[in-house]
Amino acid sequence: MAETLEDRVRVEQSARPQPGPDARDAGASEMPAELAELERRHRRLVWPLTGCYLGYYLLLILLAGYAPGLMRARILGELTVAYVFALSQFLMVGVAAYAYIRLARARVDPLVERLHERLEESPTREASK
Amino acid sequence: VSGSRLSIGLFGLFVVITLLITYFASRMTRTTAEYYAADHRMSAWQNGIAISGDYTSAASFLGVPGLIALAGLDGVLYVVGFLVALLFVLVVVAEQFRNAGRYTVADVLTQRLQDRPVRLASSLSTLSVCIVYLVAQMVGAGALVKLLFQLKGAVLGVPSEVVAIVGVGLLMVVYVAFGGMLGITWVQIIKAVLLLAGSTLVAMVTLSRFGFSITHLLDAAAAGSGKGTAYLAPGLRFDNPLDLLSLGLALVFGTAGLPHIMVRFYTVASTRAARASVNWAIGVTGAFYVMSTFIGFGAAALVGAKEIVAANKPGNMAGPQLARALGGGLDTFGGDLFLAFMAALAIATILGAVAGLTFAAASSFSHDLYAAVVRPARHATASRDQDDEVRMARRAALVIGAVAVMLAVVFRGQNVAFLVGLAFAIAASANMPVLVLSLYWRQFNTTGAVAGILAGLGSCVLLVGVGPTVIGPQGIWFKSATPLFPLDNPGIISIPLGFAAAYLGTLWSREPSFAGRTFERLRLLALTGIRIGSAVREPR
After folding, report:
1. Which of B286, B311, B362, B510 could potentially form a cystine with B396 if both were Cys, beta carbons 3.0 to 4.6 Å apart?
2. Is there a contact between B242 and A65 if contact means CB atoms under 8 Å apart?
């Protein structure tokens, strides 16, 4: 039964890019091939985005510690670089959260939904429990 | 005097409302799922606002405006760290945490690691984080009551600080033991809404005094701080760049390891709802921190650094002092009213935060230590097991409350701000690395998890224990000694150490690897919420 499911999944998504090699050996018969694709998209979203917002925050912390001269410079009237940079972090948090939601909805959620449709009506799940 | 009566009255109203909530919640709480996770029935906005309520402790409501009033930019750096931490929770862990676990942090780890050793270690670090954080909040509650209500003397021969600590302890145990997750969620929601409303009011009145111009406000704050242009640049609070970096890392990574924040994700029913609840939390918390920043500037501008320091050296009274000044000043009706309002909010804030912490500690005690380690033999029927576990959680709340009260009474009057830093550092070094590795690293194994937790926890406690916040001239003991570790916060050493120990433990143990299949099942479960194969223990 598991094999027929696997075959069905494979046929239906043959047009899509091939999953990574590790899904084969480890996932064995029960794991849908789409999991590897979901995994790939998820990691491509999570880690680069995390690099961006953490980088932006750490840059502020590092400049505050190691480049006080630069941070003391004024750019907007009385406002220093330090304050503009620090207050811009609030904006950055909003933008990053929004970006995450949009990207997750566009790239990750459709695959998750497809897996739900497939596995929740599939015989494999009933058989397992 | 009339002011302090008024705030006792307002606070009393909060207590009555929250006790009513607790009563109704207790009638709807019977099974383990109801007790630990409000039966996974909270909606995203409810959970999101409650996360914000859990997250904004007295350190945020009182500490942040004080820090910003006195140290300007360095205070803003602190706040930004808290907020970026929620992004890390959103992107890296929240959804998967909800999907993979059930009631405690250890539930996620044991999806693919061995049950007993991992639960034991995870419970140890969860209890450490919660108790350290609890003691910090409760010592703060004692100091706050003394300051705000001017109860200098004693009540029936007991110092007023001790009365406050015991009172807070009693209330939090009642919320947790009877209300369960449903009860404390609503307590958090009410608290968070009041907090945001109160902060917004004070911030807006402040801004209106400066024609809603942030630059005017900032100029006046720089003048009032007595620091002049230094107020507009970094370095007033953190003169050691490494210390600032270390604190920043602990803040950003700590939240993903705070048990009372993470167990909130179990109260929602879907991956999407987990994601949406962090967004609500970011929105509410972000708005609150923006308001706190304005309150800090306002306090520097309108109260002045001299008076802030005179009331409380770290500046914890800056917010209430500003409120009083805006209301009309000392001994005016408006001033008393505003001050009373802020005082009641401050106590409600502490109460909400300690209830969340006690709940997370009690859950971990009964679900991880008692149900899985102490009572592993499943001799009773499933339903009797459930009753047993909930009963144990309620008792654990009482014991944890008693321990926290006793420690807080011992430490009262000390400057325990370092304990909040220690709680975040343990969360970031012992909990976060193991959680992230168990979700993302295929080879990770039980030995690695136990090693990571113990190394993170041990190094934090050790480095803080020999650091400048505990020993030496700035510390609380051995004032003449030189601290053996130079930094206030151990994060920059202990977080990498937590990861390194988890990595080396995994490589050295040569555990028979069943990572392949189990890991694939965990990934499917974490990413989609679908359970297949033997990873299924009990359906949710």
Report:
1. B362
2. yes
B346 reaches A (C-beta below 8 A): no
Cα dist from B183 to B2, B154, B405, B463, whole Å: 32, 33, 22, 37
Find how far residue B204's CA is from the centre of its chain. 27
Q: Which of residues 12-71 of A touch B (CB under 8 A)?
A: 22-23, 25-28, 30-31, 35, 38-39, 42, 45-46, 49-50, 53-54, 57-58, 60-62, 64-66, 68, 71
| Number of CB atoms found within 10 A of residue A58's CB | 15
Whose CA is closest to B232, among A23, A64, A129? A64
Strand residues in B21-88 grouped as ranges (E): none
Model confidence band, residue A22 (pLDDT cutoffs 50, 70, 90): very low
DSSP labels, B230-299: GGGSS-SS--SHHHHHHHHHHHHHHGGG-HHHHGGGGGSSSHHHHHHHHHHHHHHHHHHHHHHHHHHHHI
CB contact under 8 A, B248 and A61: yes
Question: Encoding tokens for residue B360?
Answer: 């997370």
For A75, phi then psi, to 5°, come to -120, -40
B328 CB-contact burial (10 Å; exposed 0-12 / middle 13-18 / buried 19+): middle
Q: Which of B219, B232, B495 to mutate to test the interface with A (most CBs of A within 10 A)?
A: B232
**Does this complex have an ipTM over 0.85?**
yes
- pLDDT tops 50 at residue B399: yes
Q: Chain B closest CA to A77's CA: distance in Å? A: 8
Name the average pLDDT for chain B. Answer: 89
SS3 B477: strand
End-to-end CA distance of chain A: 15
| A52, A93, A101, A124: best to mutate for the B interface, most B CBs within 10 A | A93
Alpha-carbon gap, residue B380 to B474, rounded angstroms: 54
**Residue in the block written with tokens 């206030």:** B488
Bridging pattern class, strands B158-159 and B154-155: antiparallel
pLDDT of residue B163: 86
